[in-house]
Target: N-acetylglucosamine repressor
Amino acid sequence: MTKDVLSQDPVLIGDLDARDHTRLRVLQCIRAAGEISRTDIAKALISSPATVTSACGALLDAGLIAETAAPPSEGVQRGRPRVMLTVNGAVFAVAGVKIARDAIRLMVVGFQGQEIGTHVWPLLESRMDPEALVIEVRRALDAACAALDLPIERIAGLTIGLPGFLNADENFLHWSSSVTQGNVDLGPLIAAHIPCPTFIDNDANLVAKAEHLFGAGRGFHNFLVVTLEHGVGMGIILNDQLYRGERGCGAEFGHMKIQFEGALCQCGQRGCLEAYVGDYALIRDSGTVRGQSEIETIADIIAAARSGDTLAQEVLDRASRVLGVALANLVNLFDPEHIVVARSRPKFDQRYVDTMMATLRRNTVEVDAPLPGITVRNLDEMMWAKGAAAHAIERVSILKVRGLGVADAV
Ligand SMILES: [Zn+2]
Model:
């Protein structure tokens, strides 16, 4: 993560004053560069050297950045080594968490973004009441810190990624398939059980962030990430920023209606996309058509289809065509540079990817330009937690810079 630019979320920096905002921009510039001189920061930010020197002084005093010596510039035979600045990766650590159906996956990184370690905490229940879920996150964090020999006090921030509708700015959960109850203010529960600043975000948003920073979305300014798992999620990157919607709960592609009064969705409404292509829907449909109980996972359905089971083949074929139409709608609606279609497990079966792509092409409005690129890929299961850790670094950076402003005023 070290050399990547962590994009700034404009919603989050709105209450920083001008001086703190400058410090944050300087910190981000140093993070993006990996190692950079004060002079080059001033050039990059089109700012005065005095302003940059002042901001660097505050960041150095707080231990957020460190000075290193670099060899003199080319052509300079003698003289002092140039003083360079880097993010101080050792100053503290942050953690990113993904709530999955079967486990909590957690990644701990240093402030520079360097990975310290990962941990998987198995879950006995895929849906829990809100407090039980927060307690499980705390247990997962304790277990990770113990395994990594890291005092929990070193964790300066934690981001929890979970599916569903939520307001990331207020830690308010409207609805999630991982939680038994809706409209929950997670803030007090987090304050009661987790000893560091903790943030939440939609898990597909965090995958979009991870793909933008480290994966198939690198270099794209406008792209979409569609995640397939128990449900269907989407993250939207517009002009290099995550688009969350006015209430913070946009991009719920899985709950786009594709059939008037259609199949029952886990959200309680009917006709949603994920009621046709989410893992739970395919498993439900396979059970219905087969009248058997051995189909428990998507891998079971794929295996049955490969062994010639025509009913399993029909379920996968229909889901692939439905998904192809839905993706065509995204192309028609957004005209993105690129779309990443991602799932962790099991591996995509090429036959059904071909069906999906053929349907997508048939249903995309033809213009005199090529289709956006489509990447279909299996994600490392830690990619979600990695996106959450990147989010935690952004949030903690803002908290730390805001704290500097308070210290100066005293
Ligand atoms: Zn729904």
Remarks:
- The longest strand covers residues 103-110.
